[in-house]
């Protein structure tokens, strides 16, 4: 059973080479979070989310005091039905990599998805899949 | 059989009689006695099989018959089975049999069984007496009897034991004399020829008799014996054969089996060695040997024959230094040559022929006529390609040996025979054989240089065979035991290709063709071959290929996809093409290359492009290729150089810029506006041309006057443009404009460098221009150190200019260089100018110094001056960083300048004079006072140590004497009194002035650096002196003492003062008593309570520090002793242990007697320093007692110390109850463990693991111990990586894990947390069942670590958590 791809020919971007970790301090910063999620593969293609420009360094924000991580991602096409899957991948990765007291918000960039109400993923739904 | 019949009858009864059930006898309920009787009958008449069948009938019957297993070899069952050979000469246990052996039933005569016998894996069957197997175990030559069906075993005394016993017999009964070396011969012969008989008595004793036919005696032993009993009478072989029962074996089975025996193979080379030794020592003549072996070499059994011939051949190859007479040689060569036709025994013949051919002149070698016959017979009879690899290798060895040593035998060869050689080589695949065969071809072809000779005729055919191997493709990996590598093979083939010029018409087209192959390997190989072929084939032959070669090379060189290696090979090839193709038309290559349309176009495009070429990498690569091609052409001869320069140089330089242009640009620079971009391509090419001019000049600088006088020469062209060029280059390299990128600058610097390194006679460079260039570079070095790239480039350029001067000795340039460069740059070291970083100044001086010995000497001198002025003037300048500065100077001096001087034959006097000067400077007390107040003392001491360490023993003794005289004149101590025994404590001066201490410190640093051979004056006085200071708690004195004891204890040179040993005891005693006296006085003081004497309290407070110091001094002395492996170190370590445990002693004092102040804390601090004393003893130190300072270091001393102390510590720790004491012991032991070599620790893992884990837990509470915790954890992780360590950890996994999970949140050190997490990750490889219970705990700890402050820890924590969570 082959279903046609939603975005058969995505634009692939070069992965920018970063020499060393340019972190100033040891505190958690957006770059850290970005480093953990940049190499997640797209559910459709053998490229990473970074290469497909679904994520960028600017799309991550971190507030360590309040314990919040917020990621806003941009699906490659408007009618992307895999946005949910991407969101789940992101959340699972963050759950594995950061202490449980962090609140993780994953959002779709406004206007990038046709059906926007499915854009925000509740923790409840996620708990189902992350239970092993 | 009987049982089967019974059962049949039983079932037929059951089936037949429908109603008569009671009539049917119930066999199963037969009375047990009856059944036993039947069983006995079955056994008596039938055999094992019947017995098995009988037992299989029913459980009742089974119970009636005794089980055959488990009763040893005593079982009552008959053994009528005989071991039967499988045939094909395969011994039992041959891999082809799959671990089975075949037995033949003698009584029924017809039944065969195949029984699995796993023992055959590692045993060798010697004999099969009475249905049992007599086995020989490979590993230890144990002899064993095996029952093949029940697999019960009885052990006999070993074969080795038998051989030893035979060897020790005074007189052997038979004809073979035993030599020391030939135990192996025994193994070989005996294992073949042994016959045995077994007797098992009713009481269960197993007796075995071995008949040793070759020796003619009998050995007897029973299963419980340790040795064999050997008969003392001689037996003839026939007697033996008659005596022994043949029951259970075929005649000569042993010999047949042994023919292919694995075990005998193992010893065969040893026995051949033994035989060869016999022959070599004339104990056995060759004639005897041959006549003895006569039967073996002529028998029709080809297996035996081939072994016989091989044996002779091998012996012959091992006696190659023994003189043999002509007759023997002739006979032997006749024999072996005739044997070449015996294909079944070819191996031996080949070995023998080779051995004959290898024989040197003078010890009797084969005659030419025989060699000829050999060649003929070889080519006629030996089908090389149908032989095995090893034999083929022998064949090729023979061929190449003949060709190398007896070429005249082959000289008159006809085409037929040459063709035979070709045939032998054709289709060869083995790498080693190929190596040889390539060599054979090479030599054969070289034998016939005649144009009408065989080589010329057959070149085509031979090449057809060779060409198949090109390019050499070799799939064998490295380390497969083969000697030949692909490179070797390729080289051998290349030599074969180049062996004769008649190959030329075939080779060159092939190589050129392969150049366009897509395989990079093929390309590189063909370039290499081409290079070589061009050199070899000579000009006449290569001329006709010149254009083809050039076009192909051009393709490769300008191909963007070729890599660097390929291009450089191609350029090499081009170079040799131009060099060696010396045709009558001297413009051949000019026409080909210089006037090549592509090249002309390329040069034009480079010089006309407006855009910067640097913008694209491809353009740059093209430019570089172009530059290399042109410069190769220009470099190759004066004529070519002139032509190329004529063609392009003027034009290119003009493009770069005219003089006027340059001036206007300078104007622009001032205005700050940028001018038109400079053409990099033109610049690059002109610099390339310049450097090729230099190459040409270097080659021909002897007759450069003729070059100058020639009407048309590169010299004139260069001269014309020189001034303009210099200006241009200088403007580039000096300019700091951003538009001049790195490439421009480096190019310009290269140009200037080329100009400055032109041979003096050949360049019209005016002296002032030369000086200008130097000045420019120097000023860059001094002023523009912010521009790192330019700075380094200029420094490099200066260095290479300097070293180029050295190539043309005694020129004026040296003076100029010295004046303009060395005199300006080297004094930078001495200056106080802080604008330029010291490290750069040092680097510049050093680099300039590397250009020549004189320069470096100058550098050394000015470093010395810098140090000395720092000492004497530091107060005047009032600079605070003085100490660091001096440390840097010393560092540069000792680690860079001195080694350079040593390797380049510089003088060693330098260090000596420097050290003496330092001593002179520091002998003034006021200076010393100032030095130590400024903290300069440490760096001076380090410097002094290094200087002394470099000096030779004689120089060192000079230094020591001088220092000693200074000391004795300046010190206020009564030196005279010290010559005898140690002073009493009362005579000690309690405290010394600062300068005196400094003086002693300097002196001690001299002592530290001494070599063990250096004589020391007044050793006793010195030791006394140092002891006084040591007891006052001065550490340098301890270093000096430690070095003295390390180097001079038990030294024969000081044997007249062998009190050294005694003195050591004295010193130790005194140290012990000082440390103890205080604590005991403390106790007495506290018990006295009221007697608060002012003095004693004074002593008290001052003493605490010095007590600690004395403890660490003890540690240093202990280290010195430990490193030389002296026993006294035990005293020290026991004393330290006592101090460690002294808490316990204190604790035992009744509480009311304890003083409110002091006691406890001082003792714990003592304990701490005692613990760290172990650290001092075990760890390596930069300070003293290392290789640099010539310490005596016994190998494995750490390991030894560890294994001595480990049990002591373990028991101490076990019996200690007090917490603080335990902690101190843990600390000390932790130091020992963490400094001992990890493999040593791991072998003791089972003993110390628990203690280690416990100490990790306890020590992690105190921040002071964080380094110790880390190093212990590292040891632990080392254990975790080891198989044995893993086992130990698995046994104690609970406690280990709980400690580790605690360490995950260790607050004091990041690396500890990280390592703990890494260990936890490593735990995941342990068995799942063991670690699963820990999962929850570990995951929790990892989650906690996810929130760590440090990023590195968080990252490991993520990995740890993922690993452990995946166990679900």
UniProtKB/TrEMBL annotation, chain A:
Gene Ontology biological process: protein maturation
Gene3D superfamilies assigned: Fe-S cluster assembly (FSCA)
Similarity comment: family membership: Belongs to the MIP18 family.
Name of this protein: MIP18 family-like domain-containing protein
Automatic annotation (TrEMBL), chain B:
Family matches, as InterPro entries: ARM-like, ARM-type_fold, MMS19, MMS19_C, MMS19_N
UniProt record, GO biological process: DNA repair; iron-sulfur cluster assembly; protein maturation
Subcellular location: Nucleus
Domain called MMS19 N-terminal: residue spans: 290-558
Domain MMS19 C-terminal residues, every copy: 916-1322
Keywords: DNA damage, DNA repair, Nucleus, Repeat
Any GO CC annotation of this UniProt entry: cytosolic [4Fe-4S] assembly targeting complex
Predominant subcellular localization, coarse grouping: nucleus
Similarity field: Belongs to the MET18/MMS19 family.
Function: Key component of the cytosolic iron-sulfur protein assembly (CIA) complex, a multiprotein complex that mediates the incorporation of iron-sulfur cluster into apoproteins specifically involved in DNA metabolism and genomic integrity. In the CIA complex, MMS19 acts as an adapter between early-acting CIA components and a subset of cellular target iron-sulfur proteins.
The protein, known as: MMS19 nucleotide excision repair protein
Organism: Miscanthus lutarioriparius
């Amino acid at each position: 059973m082959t279903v046609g791809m939603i975005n058969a020919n995505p634009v692939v971007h070069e992965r920018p080479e970063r020499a060393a970790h340019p972190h100033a301090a040891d505190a958690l910063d957006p770059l850290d979070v970005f480093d953990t999620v940049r190499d997640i593969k797209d559910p459709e293609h053998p490229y990473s989310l970074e290469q497909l420009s679904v994520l960028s360094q600017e799309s991550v924000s971190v507030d360590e005091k309040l314990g919040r991580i917020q990621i806003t991602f941009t699906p490659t096409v408007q009618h992307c039905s895999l946005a949910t899957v991407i969101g789940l991948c992101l959340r699972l990765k963050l759950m594995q990599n950061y202490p449980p007291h962090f609140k993780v918000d994953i959002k779709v960039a406004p206007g990038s998805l046709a059906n926007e109400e499915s854009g925000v993923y509740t923790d409840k739904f996620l708990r189902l899949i992350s239970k092993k | 059989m009987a049982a089967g019949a019974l059962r049949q009858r039983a079932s037929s009864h059951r089936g037949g009689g429908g109603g008569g059930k009671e009539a049917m006898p119930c066999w199963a309920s037969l009375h047990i006695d009856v059944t036993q009787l039947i069983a006995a009958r079955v056994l008596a008449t039938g055999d094992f099989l019947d017995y098995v069948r009988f037992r299989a009938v029913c459980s009742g019957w089974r119970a009636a018959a005794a089980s055959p297993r488990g009763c040893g070899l005593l079982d009552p069952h008959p053994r009528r089975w005989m071991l039967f050979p499988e045939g094909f000469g395969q011994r039992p246990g041959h891999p082809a049999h799959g671990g089975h052996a075949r037995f033949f039933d003698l009584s029924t005569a017809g039944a065969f069984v195949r029984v699995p016998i796993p023992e055959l894996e590692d045993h060798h069957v010697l004999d099969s007496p009475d249905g049992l197997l007599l086995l020989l175990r490979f590993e230890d030559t144990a002899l064993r009897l095996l029952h093949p069906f029940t697999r019960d075993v009885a052990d006999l005394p070993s074969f080795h034991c038998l051989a030893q016993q035979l060897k020790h017999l005074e007189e052997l009964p038979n004809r073979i004399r035993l030599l020391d070396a030939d135990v192996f011969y025994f193994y070989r012969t005996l294992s073949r020829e042994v016959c045995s008989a077994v007797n098992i008595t009713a009481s269960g004793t197993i007796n075995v008799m071995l008949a040793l036919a070759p020796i003619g005696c009998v050995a007897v032993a029973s299963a419980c014996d340790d040795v064999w009993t050997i008969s003392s009478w001689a037996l003839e072989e026939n007697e033996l054969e008659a005596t022994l029962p043949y029951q259970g074996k075929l005649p000569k089975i042993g010999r047949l089996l042994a023919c292919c025996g694995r075990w005998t193979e193992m010893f065969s080379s040893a026995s051949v060695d033994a035989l060869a030794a016999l022959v070599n020592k004339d104990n056995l003549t060759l004639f005897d040997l041959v006549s003895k072996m006569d039967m073996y070499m002529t028998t029709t059994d080809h297996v035996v024959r081939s072994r016989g011939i091989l044996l002779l051949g091998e012996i012959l190859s091992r006696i190659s230094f023994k003189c043999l007479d002509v007759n023997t040689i002739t006979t032997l060569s006749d024999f072996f040559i005739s044997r070449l036709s015996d294909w079944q025994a070819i191996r031996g013949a080949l070995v023998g022929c080779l051995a004959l051919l290898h024989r040197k002149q003078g010890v009797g070698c084969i005659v030419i006529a025989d060699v000829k016959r050999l060649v003929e017979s070889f080519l006629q009879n030996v089908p090389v390609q149908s032989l095995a690899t090893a034999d083929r290798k022998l064949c090729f060895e023979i061929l190449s040996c003949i060709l190398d040593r007896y070429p005249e035998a082959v000289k008159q060869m006809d085409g037929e025979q040459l063709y035979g050689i070709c045939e032998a080589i054709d289709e060869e695949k083995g790498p080693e054989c190929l190596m040889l065969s390539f060599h054979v071809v090479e030599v054969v072809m070289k034998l016939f240089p005649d144009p009408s000779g065989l080589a010329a005729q057959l070149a085509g055919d031979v090449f057809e065979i060779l060409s198949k191997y090109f390019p050499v493709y070799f799939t064998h990996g490295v380390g497969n035991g083969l000697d030949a590598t692909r490179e070797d093979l390729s080289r051998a083939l290349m030599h074969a290709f180049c062996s004769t010029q008649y190959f030329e018409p075939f080779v060159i087209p092939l190589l050129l063709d392969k150049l366009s192959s897509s395989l990079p390997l093929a390309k590189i190989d063909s370039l290499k071959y081409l290079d070589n072929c061009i050199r070899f084939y000579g000009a006449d032959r290569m001329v006709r290929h010149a254009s083809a070669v050039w076009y192909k090379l051009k393709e490769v060189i300008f191909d963007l996809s070729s890599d660097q290696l390929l291009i450089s090979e191609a350029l090499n090839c081009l170079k040799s093409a131009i060099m060696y193709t010396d045709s009558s038309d001297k413009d051949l290559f000019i026409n080909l290359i210089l006037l090549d349309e592509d090249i002309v176009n390329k040069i034009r495009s480079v010089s006309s492009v407006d855009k910067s070429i640097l913008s694209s990498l491809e353009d740059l690569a093209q430019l570089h290729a172009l530059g290399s091609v042109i410069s190769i052409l220009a470099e190759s001869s004066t004529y070519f150089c002139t032509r190329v320069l004529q063609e392009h140089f003027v034009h290119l330089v003009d493009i770069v810029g005219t003089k006027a242009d340059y001036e206007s640009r300078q104007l622009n620079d001032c205005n700050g506006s940028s001018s038109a971009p400079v053409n990099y391509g033109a610049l690059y090419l002109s610099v390339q041309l310049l450097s090729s001019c230099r190459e040409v000049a270097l080659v021909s600088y002897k007759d450069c006057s003729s070059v100058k006088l020639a009407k048309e020469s590169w010299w004139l062209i260069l001269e014309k443009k020189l001034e303009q060029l210099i200006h241009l280059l200088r403007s580039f390299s000096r300019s700091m404009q951003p538009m001049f990128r790195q490439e421009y600058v480096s190019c310009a610097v290269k140009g200037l460098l080329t100009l400055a390194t032109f041979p003096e006679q050949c360049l019209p460079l005016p002296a002032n221009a030369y000086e200008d260039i130097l000045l420019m570079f120097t000023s860059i070095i001094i002023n523009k150190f912010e521009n790192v790239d330019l700075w380094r480039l200029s420094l490099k350029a200066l260095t290479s200019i300097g070293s180029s001067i050295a190539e043309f000795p005694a020129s004026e340039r040296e003076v100029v260089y010295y004046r303009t460069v060395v005199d300006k740059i080297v004094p930078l070291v001495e200056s106080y100018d802080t604008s330029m970083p010291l490290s750069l100044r040092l680097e510049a001086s050093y680099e300039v110094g590397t250009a020549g010995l004189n320069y470096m000497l100058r550098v050394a001198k000015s470093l010395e001056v810098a140090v000395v002025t720092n000492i004497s003037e530091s107060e005047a300048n009032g600079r605070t960083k003085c100490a660091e500065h001096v440390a840097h100077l010393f560092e540069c001096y000792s680690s860079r300048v001195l080694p350079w001087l040593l390797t380049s034959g510089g003088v060693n006097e330098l260090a000596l004079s420097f050290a003496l000067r330092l001593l002179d400077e520091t002998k003034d007390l006021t200076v010393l006072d100032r030095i130590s107040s400024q903290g300069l003392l440490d760096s001076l001491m380090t410097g002094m140590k290094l200087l002394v360490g470099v000096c030779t023993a004689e120089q060192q003794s000079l230094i020591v004497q001088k220092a000693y005289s200074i000391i004795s004149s300046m010190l206020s101590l009564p030196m005279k009194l010290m010559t005898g025994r140690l002073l009493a404590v009362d005579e000690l001066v309690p405290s010394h002035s600062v300068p005196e201490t400094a003086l002693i410190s300097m002196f001690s640093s001299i002592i530290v650096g001494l070599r063990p051979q250096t004589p020391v004056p007044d050793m006793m006085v010195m030791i006394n002196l140092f002891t006084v200071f040591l007891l006052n708690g001065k550490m340098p004195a301890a270093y000096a003492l430690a070095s003295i004891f390390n180097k001079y204890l038990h030294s024969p040179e000081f044997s007249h003062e062998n009190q050294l040993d005694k003195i050591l005891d004295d010193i130790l005693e005194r140290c012990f008593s000082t440390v103890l006296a205080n604590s005991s006085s403390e106790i007495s003081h506290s018990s006295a309570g009221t007697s608060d004497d002012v003095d004693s309290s004074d002593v008290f407070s001052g003493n605490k520090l010095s007590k600690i110091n004395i403890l660490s001094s003890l540690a240093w002395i202990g280290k010195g002793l430990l490193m030389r492996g002296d026993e006294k170190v035990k005293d020290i370590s026991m004393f330290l242990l006592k101090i460690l445990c002294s808490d316990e002693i204190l604790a035992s004092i009744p509480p009311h007697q304890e003083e409110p102040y002091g006691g406890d804390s001082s003792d714990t601090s003592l304990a701490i320093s005692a613990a760290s004393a172990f650290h001092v003893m075990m760890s390596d130190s930069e300070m003293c007692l290392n290789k640099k300072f010539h310490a005596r270091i016994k190998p494995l001393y750490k390991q030894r110390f560890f294994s001595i102390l480990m049990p002591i510590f373990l028991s101490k720790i076990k019996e200690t109850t007090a917490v603080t004491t335990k902690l101190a012991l843990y600390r000390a032991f932790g130091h020992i463990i963490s400094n001992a070599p990890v493999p040593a620790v791991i072998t003791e893992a089972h003993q110390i693991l628990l203690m280690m884990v416990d100490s990790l837990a306890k020590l992690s509470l105190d921040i002071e111990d964080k380094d110790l915790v880390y190093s212990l954890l590292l040891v632990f992780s080392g254990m975790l990586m080891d198989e044995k360590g893993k086992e130990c950890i698995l046994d104690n996994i609970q406690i280990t894990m709980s400690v580790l999970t605690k360490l995950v949140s260790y607050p004091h050190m990041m690396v500890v947390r990280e390592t703990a997490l890494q260990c936890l990750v490593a735990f995941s490889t342990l068995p799942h069942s063991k670690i699963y219970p820990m999962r929850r705990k570990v995951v929790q700890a990892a989650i906690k670590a996810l929130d760590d402050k440090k990023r590195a820890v968080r990252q490991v924590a993520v990995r740890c958590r993922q690993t452990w969570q995946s166990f679900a």
